[in-house]
């Protein structure tokens, strides 16, 4: 069993710690992007194209411009220059739609920005945007759901997955498949899904021309990556980096759609530049379906060849995903395929199909989530075909190393997760016959699936201050997207300095702070651990220098290495902590307001010279209830086990996994974006029509962590969580649906019509 005793009770690590930013949120004092007010603030509302393919031939802004309170109707002819940005290594300068707004007259998707109305009030701007008349030469859009590869090999693609895994090949997959006693060949489909964070995308842009070194652009943005956004904006407005500042204090969640900038942000900044006043632009819920990304539709053919006992002989995963006419996004469905099982013959390939839709984007567990839906479903189909328990099938095919790279796993306890999950769920009482399990007049279905998600680190820097009022401040230009990063930063500073969390102040979400990681890839926590600990060590070292060098100090003449800091008190190691002095007293005595320390940690992600395969693992066990009389399907119980290294905040950790499972229920049963074949518009572009899982859809979700520290990632062994909770869950649900109903649904979401 996992051990939990290696943290002392007083340690702020590996405990349930409530959010330090909770009071600010529940009292309404937390400032989200649209909460920042400035004198003279104007409101901007973009105008979106009402065709999805063709050319903008004319724009009549006459009526809109004459409306009282309208300050400008900006379009290609008067917006001023917006340049392209270029990607850099290490996730810099990235946009998922490379073309800036208004660059040409071509229309590639419905809702593409063609103008922006700027006015004294939001209502006036909205009315003016509605009054802009556009004419087009329109062609029929291609939003066909069936996907065939029509690839453009020159396209630059961005992906969270290590690049060398984009295509994978080993052994003789075709030959082994042909000769296998058991063969499966199925295609699984996931629909286009749209991110629906509670807080819509928003920008508040302020130009300050008074700076002597040229104009200064400050952008408040609901962003998962302020550092990248600053790099992009500096390029788009032709400014040195130091003339752009990006601020994101709070984010009403982001599921990948806020990782990289979209066109509305530079549009707001350009509008503010043209009118000479601060501008706020908030997308409507409907616009959220147009210009800020989607998880692209995928079509994945999985072929498995196996022995009659279930040993895998060949695995082929050939997937195609939908892409827009403009984007660089790669939906890396094959990320997990090469390493998740022991199989000597394997092939992963991908293709893309261009459609007149908005750009694809990362969405919680990009690639692996749709990918594992397909491959884990195929494993469950194999288990059913040969009548072996799906848990036993997975254990039978457990790999010893990452066979995709030939590297050892840093820390993999997948089998233990299956065994613990089965025990906690009561899996071994499962009767395999379809529809044979009943409770209270309901038919039960039990299903399971494994899950995995990548691990690693982005580059990160941090600063720690120890102040003469006995507090500590930790600063890092990362973001808290609702996951608990404020709290993790405080825990880390508290852990290293020995000061209680209440004494820690956290600053994040501001590019004037040391550059921090994207809030993405579930890598944030892993990335900030070494940077913050190093910064704290550096600040402590400065404190010891003060303690040893100040006349009034009881430690005068001691070497910094002979001194230690515990629970806020400095003491000589030789004398022990009993004679410690509060560190703030030492600072006071030396007339030092604060000591400061910087820490840096390099990226370890997608490194071709990596020594270990870094991933997290786990599994979901799911119960559904089925009432054929009224065609009612519910997910009634979920047990999830996660092997994600050391969990730093178990409360926030369980919360993240539950959130992933809830989104997975939405993925399996509810979510899909439909496009109108006539005009290419997303049809169900509202929260009434695009269904996500809500509380009423969410059953009790039991979460267990294995808690094996992964010291390859950082000294605390924290790999990070957030996305893995959504991986595999759709396959577990569809397997439970099959167990209850006998219907194998291979196109998500499961519809009631599928089950009748
Ligand atoms: Mo996540 S899709 O990396 O925000």
Structural notes for this entry:
The protein has 756 residues and is an alpha+beta fold. A hairpin with a 4-residue loop joins β25 (615-627) and β26 (632-643). Residues 1-9 have low confidence and may be disordered.
**Tell me, what's the shape?**
globular
Calculate the terminal CA-CA distance, rounded to whole Å.
44 Å
Strand order of the biggest β-sheet: 3-5-1-12-9-10-11
Oligomerization state: single chain
Count of strand segments: 27
Strand content: 15-25%
Low-confidence regions? 1-9
Mean pLDDT reading: 94
Number of helices: 16
Largest sheet: 7 strands, mixed
Rg estimate, integer Å: 27 Å
Q: Give the structural class.
A: alpha+beta
- Which percent range fits the helix content? 10-25%
Bound molecules: dioxothiomolybdenum(VI) ion
Layout of strands and helices, then pairs:
Blueprint: H1 22-26, E1 42-48, E2 54-60, H2 62-66, E3 70-75, E4 106-107, E5 113-119, H3 122-131, E6 133-138, E7 168-170, H4 173-178, E8 182-190, E9 202-208, E10 216-221, H5 226-236, E11 244-247, H6 264-275, E12 279-282, E13 298-306, E14 312-323, H7 337-340, E15 345-354, H8 368-386, H9 390-396, H10 414-425, E16 437-439, E17 442-454, E18 460-467, E19 472-476, H11 485-497, E20 504-508, H12 524-549, E21 563-566, E22 569-572, E23 581-582, H13 583-589, E24 594-601, E25 615-627, E26 632-643, H14 650-669, E27 701-705, H15 729-741, H16 752-755
Parallel strand pairs: 1-12, 10-11, 14-15, 19-20, 26-27
Antiparallel strand pairs: 1-5, 2-4, 2-6, 3-5, 7-15, 8-13, 9-10, 9-12, 13-14, 16-17, 17-25, 18-19, 18-24, 21-22, 22-23, 25-26
Helix pairs in contact: 8-15, 11-12, 14-15
Dioxothiomolybdenum(VI) ion is lined by residues 224, 254-256, 259, 362-364, 366, 520-521, 723.
């Amino acid at each position: 069993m996992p051990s939990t005793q290696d943290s002392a009770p007083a340690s702020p690590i590996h405990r349930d710690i409530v959010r330090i930013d909770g009071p600010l949120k529940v009292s309404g004092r937390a400032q989200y992007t649209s909460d920042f007010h400035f004198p003279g603030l104007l409101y901007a509302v973009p105008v979106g194209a009402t065709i999805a393919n063709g050319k903008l031939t004319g724009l009549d802004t006459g009526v809109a411009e004459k409306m009282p309170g309208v300050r400008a109707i900006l379009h290609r002819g008067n917006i001023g220059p917006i340049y392209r940005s270029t990607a850099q290594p290490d996730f810099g300068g990235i946009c998922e739609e490379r073309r800036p707004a208004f660059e040409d007259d071509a229309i590639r998707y419905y809702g593409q920005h063609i103008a922006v109305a700027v006015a004294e009030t939001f209502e006036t701007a909205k009315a003016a945007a509605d009054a802009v008349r556009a004419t087009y030469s329109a062609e029929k859009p291609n939003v066909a759901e069936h996907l065939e590869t029509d690839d453009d090999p020159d396209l630059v693609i961005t992906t969270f997955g290590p690049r060398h895994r984009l295509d994978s090949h080993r052994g003789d997959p075709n030959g082994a498949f042909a000769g296998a006693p058991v063969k499966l060949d199925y295609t699984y489909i996931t629909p286009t899904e749209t991110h629906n964070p509670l807080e819509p995308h928003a920008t508040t842009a302020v130009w300050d021309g008074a700076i002597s070194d040229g104009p200064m652009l400050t952008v408040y943005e609901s962003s998962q990556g302020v550092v990248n956004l600053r790099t992009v904006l500096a390029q788009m407005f032709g400014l040195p980096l130091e003339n752009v500042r990006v601020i994101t204090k709070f984010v009403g969640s982001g599921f990948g759609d806020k990782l990289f900038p979209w066109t509305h942000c530079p549009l707001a900044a350009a509008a503010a530049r043209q009118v000479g006043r601060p501008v706020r632009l908030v997308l409507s819920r409907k616009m959220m379906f147009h210009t800020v990304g989607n998880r692209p539709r995928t079509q994945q053919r999985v072929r498995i060849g196996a022995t009659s006992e279930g040993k895998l002989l060949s695995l082929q995963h050939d997937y195609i995903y939908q892409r827009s006419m403009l984007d660089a996004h790669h939906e890396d469905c094959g990320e997990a395929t090469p390493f998740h099982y022991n199989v000597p013959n394997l092939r992963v390939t991908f293709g893309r199909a261009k459609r007149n839709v908005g750009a694809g984007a990362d969405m919680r567990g990009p690639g692996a989530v749709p990918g594992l839906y397909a491959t884990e479903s195929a494993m469950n189909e194999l288990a059913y075909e040969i009548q072996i328990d799906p848990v036993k099938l997975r254990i039978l095919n457990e790999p010893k190393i990452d066979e995709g790279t030939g590297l050892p796993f840093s820390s993999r306890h997948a089998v233990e997760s299956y065994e613990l999950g089965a025990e906690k769920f009561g899996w071994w009482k499962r009767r395999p016959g379809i529809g044979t399990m009943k409770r209270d007049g309901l038919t039960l279905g039990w299903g399971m699936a494994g899950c995995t998600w990548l691990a690693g680190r982005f580059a990160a820097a941090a600063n720690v201050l120890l102040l003469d009022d006995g507090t500590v401040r930790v600063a890092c230009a990362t973001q808290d997207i609702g996951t608990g990063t404020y709290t993790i930063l405080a825990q880390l500073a508290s852990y290293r300095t020995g000061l209680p969390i209440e004494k820690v102040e956290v600053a994040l979400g501001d590019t004037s702070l040391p550059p921090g990681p994207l809030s993405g890839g579930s890598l944030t926590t892993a990335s900030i651990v070494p940077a913050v600990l190093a910064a704290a060590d550096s600040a402590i070292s400065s404190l010891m220098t003060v303690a040893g060098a100040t006349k009034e100090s009881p430690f005068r003449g001691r070497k910094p290495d002979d001194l230690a800091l515990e629970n806020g008190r400095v003491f000589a190691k030789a004398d022990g902590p009993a004679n410690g002095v509060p560190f703030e007293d030492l600072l006071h005595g030396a007339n030092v307001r604060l000591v400061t320390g910087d820490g840096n940690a390099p990226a370890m992600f997608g490194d071709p010279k990596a020594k270990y395969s870094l991933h997290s693992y786990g599994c979901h066990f799911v119960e559904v209830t089925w009432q054929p009389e009224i065609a009612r399907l519910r997910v009634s119980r979920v047990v999830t086990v996660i092997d994600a290294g050391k969990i730093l905040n178990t409360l926030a950790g369980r919360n993240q996994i539950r959130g992933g499972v809830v989104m997975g229920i939405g993925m399996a049963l509810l979510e899909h974006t439909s496009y109108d074949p006539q005009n290419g518009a997303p049809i169900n572009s509202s929260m009434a029509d695009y269904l996500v899982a809500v509380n009423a859809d969410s059953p009790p979700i039991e979460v267990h962590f294995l808690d094996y520290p992964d010291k390859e990632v950082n000294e605390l062994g924290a790999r990070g969580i957030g996305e893995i909770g959504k991986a595999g869950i759709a396959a577990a649900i569809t397997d439970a649906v099959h167990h209850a109903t006998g219907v194998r649904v291979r196109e998500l979401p499961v519809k009631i019509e599928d089950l009748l």
